[in-house]
Design goal:
It is built from 11 helices and 5 strands, in the order αββααβββαααααααα. The chain has about 260 residues and is mainly alpha-helical.
Length: about 260
């Protein structure tokens, strides 16, 4: 009965990992299970960022690059993660999209800059994307979908993040997979959480969180021509999203007023 024995060991291992990997998301207090360590996650983020910078040219709009740096530094200060090595880059392309990888690697495509309109609009997007990274949504999604075999490999010293399957899963989560469009969209709960924490981050950085309502109204108009990856179908409907944001605004306004 070697098989049975092996199976029960694996079940035990998963149970143990679930216990040891249980964490609480800052600001919202939600519990999550993460089987990937933060250092592994940051390493994946750095590698995926290097990869995309090799494939996608940087925007020549120096005004946008400067703007992203300016807003990015303030959001980074609000995020209070000195262990992150922040980078902010505008990439060439019409995509109405942006991301922040674990470790603080941020990119906006040119296509989203006119929707952002100004520094505050950039802060809405930046706050949202940085929130996905801070709340470790990538690791959480991967932990949920990981096979026992993959978990075993992660735990094996030396294999870790070099595992191509893991790197590909990670890239797909952030919409950076080899086949664009075949991404694993964030869950609704994660998306709402990123909105919620994003409002707090922008407020702490000194941007009026009330501007998020106008931004998402502008986004809802852009989306009619085909929804961009990060803001895909499982996201809350525009109406739900804006209503939720209005409910969180009083909380975010406290942070905004506190830093003024
Ligand atoms: Zn999102």
């Amino acid at each position: 009965m070697v098989y049975t024995k092996g199976l029960s060991c694996r079940v035990f291992l998963l149970f143990f990992l679930a216990l040891s990997g249980c964490q609480t998301v800052e600001y919202t207090g939600r519990s999550q299970v993460n089987l990937i360590s933060e250092s592994q996650e940051k390493q994946l983020g750095t590698e995926a960022y290097e990869d995309i910078l090799k494939k996608t040219p940087i925007s020549k709009r120096s005004d946008w690059q400067t703007q992203l740096q300016r807003v990015g530094q303030r959001i980074a200060a609000a995020a209070a993660r000195p262990d992150y090595q922040w980078e902010f880059k505008v990439l060439q392309g019409k995509e109405v999209n942006a991301f922040c990888l674990p470790g603080g690697k941020v990119a906006f495509w040119e296509g989203i800059m006119p929707v952002a309109q100004d520094d505050t609009g950039v802060a809405v997007i930046m706050g949202h994307e940085v929130a996905h990274a801070l709340a470790r949504h990538g690791a959480e999604r991967m932990s949920q979908s990981m096979s026992a075999q993959l978990i075993g490999q992660i735990l094996t010293a030396g294999v870790g993040m070099a595992n191509p399957a893991l790197a590909e899963d990670f890239a797909q989560l952030y919409g950076l997979g080899a086949s664009v469009g075949v991404i694993l969209p964030w869950g609704r709960a994660q998306e709402s959480e990123a909105d919620h924490i994003g409002l707090i981050l922008m407020a702490k950085a000194g941007y009026d969180p009330a501007a998020a309502v106008g931004f998402w109204e502008r986004m809802s108009k852009v989306q009619q021509g085909g929804k961009p990856p990060e803001f895909l179908s499982t996201h809350p409907s525009d109406e739900t999203r804006i209503n939720q944001i209005k409910q969180w605004l009083p909380e975010a306004q406290k942070y905004y007023k506190a830093q003024k």
